[in-house]
Specification:
- Pfam families: adh_short (PF00106).
- It is a single chain.
- With 89 residues, this protein is an alpha/beta fold.
- The chain has a single domain, classed as NAD(P)-binding Rossmann-like Domain (Rossmann fold).
- 44% of the residues lie in helices and 18% in strands.
- The protein has three helices and three strands, in the order βαβαβα.
- It has a three-stranded parallel β-sheet, covered by helices on one side.
- The longest helix has 14 residues.
Length: 89
Amino acid sequence: MPNLGGKVCLVTGASRGIGRGIALQLITNGATCYITGRDLSKLEAVKNEAKERGAGGHCIPVQCDHSKDDDIKELFNKISSEQNATLDL
């Protein structure tokens, strides 16, 4: 996988399964990765696992229920304000 330093990514459903695996690979390869799910403690576990792997990127866990429009708006407002409106993946 290429170096993803400087790239901003969003992975939904990152607390388990395929979403978790994708997030860990993106973070390991240097991306700043916002990860979402309903259980913040599980998202924090993903962040800790990325650290243990020596990840080159940054992991930003965000509790979000994607069935709620307000949660989604808040998520994208957060990314936009923190990353100067940049979202690469």
